[in-house]
Each structure stands twice: as C-alpha cells, then as structure tokens.
Specification:
globular, alpha/beta, 9-stranded mixed sheet, 39% helix
Length: 409
C-alpha cells in the first residue's frame, strides 16, 4: 500500500450508527438515549484521535409503533417532542445527530409520516419494508400507502425535500447504517454499525494506477488496487473498534462497505471515467458498476451489513446531478444499473404532478428486481412541486445537489 493511499482523509466515517430499543414507558427513554449518546461521543473521539473524520452519529430504534402513541398524530408528536428534547440534551455528541424512528409496519403508520417528517425532519427518518406474496408480487397496500405518503410529503415540505427522510425498502435486512433505510430488527439489544464514505479513496487509487492497453488487464488491476485500498482502511477502522475499551453493552454488528458519496467528496462519476467509461450512462456503465459492486463485496475480516455495494444517489452526488442536466441517463437506466449495484432508485427528483399510480408502479418494479435478484433495493423519490421533466431543482438543503427532474415513463 503506497503512503498516499494510507492517508485517512481519503476514507471518512460517514456515520457511527447505533441501534436501540425504546419501550412504551416514556420514562425509560432518557437512559437509553443518553447511553447511546455517550457511546457515540467516546467512539467518535477515538476515531478522531486516530485521524479519521466522523461526519455524523445516528440512532435507529425499533418500529415506532412499538413505543409512540400512533392512535393520533398529536400522540405521535408528543413522543417526538420528548425525543427531540433528549437528543438536544447535554449527553449528546458535539456532532451532527440524525435519528430514525424505525419502520412503519402498517398503512395507518405510513400515513402518519408526512406530518411527522414535516415537523421533525432530520430527527424523524423512517422507512417501510415491503414484503411479497406467494407470486413474488410486492404488497400493493403498503406500496400504494407509501406512494401517497411520498406525494403528501412533497406537497407539505419545501421543494418536497422532506422525502430525504423517507424510503421504501425491498429485501433489506436490518442494521443499515445509512438513512432513512436503517431499521432495528429487534433481535439484538443495543448495537452499532460503521458506515464509510470512500469515493476520494477510489479516485485516488485509480489515478495512481498505471494504464494498460488491454481492457481486461485494466479491470483486473483496478479490482486489485481498489480492493486492497478499501481493505486497508477497513482493517484500520476495525482495529480501532477492537481496541476501544467499552463496557456499555453495544455490540459491533459490522461495516457497510458502500462508497456512500456526498456533496463534499469526489463524485462516483469520476470513478467511472477513470475506469474508461466515457460518462456515467454511456456504454460500459453496467460493466463498471458490476466491477465496483464486486470490490465492495470483497471486504473480509469483518461482517458486511447494510448495502455494502455501489450507491448511486442522484441528488447527493454532484457528478450524477450534472449528468441529469445533460440527459446522460434516465430512470430506466438507473433501474438497469440496480441489477448489478446496491441501492435502487435513491434521491431521484421526478415531476411533482406524477400520479400516485405511477409512483407505486415504479416502486413495484424496483421491488420485483430486489426479489428476483435477491438483493436489497430501495426507492426514495422526490416529486418536486411545479416542476416538469428537464426543469432544474432549487433545493436548499446542504445535503442535496440541484439537478434536472427525471421523467417517469
């Protein structure tokens, strides 16, 4: 491993995500939240001492219907008011805190989410896990309810940005560290997962590799170089976790090896270009996507959880956002790439007038792929009020890049 690739600023920790269980008894919440906050403070401090940047800490609960009063919106708001107070308490880390209230399990719970997300935003991330019938068809009751929620969130939040906090999961296991897909399976007690941000590492590794004339030789060298660089940093992260003395009862579940791009790092589009693809969406994109997925799956010596694959988050990656403005790919393309990558349709802006029926159909298409290919896929759509295909968004969130709205065929 060359010294340049050992630099810790090439591999950030996007998140230390804890998973906790809340009970109906509100008086027990303070101890649970405080314990998670102290744990995150200590562990993030250890990583920072070793030169790794920790961007956020996150907490995920069991399904919110198990501890919130979901009989009315007011009852659920009361519980979230309590949680907001606790999350702003003195025991919390001096880092960005994001909170997920777990999964919605019923139609009624899904329909509560637009109002709650509007009022609590980053402290009210949520998902719904959609199952399949005996014919492999997604549960359309849940899908249609989720599509209605997506449309309502787009209507009642600025520029529809509230959909950043809601996703539909297909074939997703628990303990995903990234939001809003993460949920607690409730088969473990308190536990935690590390999520990485590695596009800078991928780009630097490929830039240092000597070019080869033969395509297969190039891909082989890229695989070996990228896998070795990623493994080096994963091993380092795991060694810090292992050396972290703790008696707090938080079990280490594993690492999500996904690249997890953001506005503040290299674009995954640059990775494709360095692999010889003219632009993301051009011929060769599927092949490069498959190679990258294989690299993320190659990590050894630690349990891989979550997606541990290629993330293509359209509005969180400035290169992908730029590609929408040049019409270099569309929703059909993203679905095709989902066959060999890791996340599905993530943060995809669509026309605000898209009918609920079309949103639901797009969700079911993604679900079918997840079921048939036995892989985790999600759908996080952003219907943008007043915009049509090709129009440019005007998002104000620091997390989101502005891009062209994609048509829903």
């Amino acid at each position: 491993m060359t010294p340049e690739l050992m630099k810790k600023d090439l591999c950030r920790l996007r998140t230390i995500t804890t998973f906790v269980v809340l009970e109906k008894d509100v008086s027990t919440w303070k101890e649970t939240i405080s314990l998670a906050g102290k744990f995150c403070s200590k562990l993030s401090g250890k990583f920072q001492e070793q030169g790794y940047e920790v961007q956020s800490v996150r907490m995920v609960t069991n399904p919110f219907g198990e501890y919130l009063d979901t009989s009315t919106v007011a009852g659920a708001r009361s519980g979230l008011d309590t949680l907001t107070h606790l999350l702003n308490g003195p025991d919390m880390p001096d880092l960005r805190i994001r909170f997920a209230i777990g999964e919605a399990k019923t139609r009624e719970e899904i329909l509560l989410l637009p109002s709650l997300i509007k009022d609590y935003g980053d402290l009210c991330n949520a998902c719904v896990n959609v199952g399949f019938d005996e014919y492999g068809i997604p549960d359309n009751t849940l899908v249609t309810s989720a599509a209605k929620a997506v449309r309502e969130i787009s209507r009642i939040t600025d520029q529809g940005e509230g959909n950043f906090n809601f996703t539909v999961n297909f074939n997703c296991d628990p303990y995903i560290p990234y939001f809003p897909a993460g949920y607690h399976g409730n088969t473990r007690g308190n536990c935690f997962v590390i999520g990485l941000e590695t596009p800078d590492l991928l780009v630097k590794t490929l830039e240092l590799l000597p070019g080869r004339q033969d395509h297969n030789d190039n891909f082989k060298a890229a695989y070996e170089g990228l896998a070795a660089a990623l493994q080096y940093h994963v091993d380092d992260v795991v060694s810090i976790v292992d050396a972290f003395g703790r008696d707090d009862g938080f079990e280490f579940v594993g690492i999500d090896s996904s690249a997890a791009p953001s506005k503040g790092c290299s674009s995954m589009v640059r990775v494709y270009e360095l692999l010889g693809v003219e632009y993301f969406g051009a011929a060769g994109t599927v092949e490069a996507s498959a190679l990258l997925t294989k690299i993320f799956k190659s990590v050894s010596g630690v349990p891989l959880v979550g997606f541990s694959g290629l993330m293509l988050a359209v509005t969180e990656d400035h290169g992908l956002a730029k590609g929408t403005k040049k019409a270099q790919f569309d929703i059909r393309s993203l679905l095709i790439y989902s066959a060999v990558c890791g996340i599905g349709l993530d943060t995809v802006p669509i026309p605000g007038s898209t009918p609920i029926k079309k949103i639901a159909a797009l969700m079911r298409d993604t679900g079918i792929m997840a079921h048939r290919l036995d892989k985790p896929l999600t759908v996080r759509l952003f219907p943008v009020p007043g915009l049509n295909p090709g129009d440019i968004t005007a998002f104000e969130s620091d997390d989101l890049c502005n891009c062209a709205v994609l048509a829903v065929p």
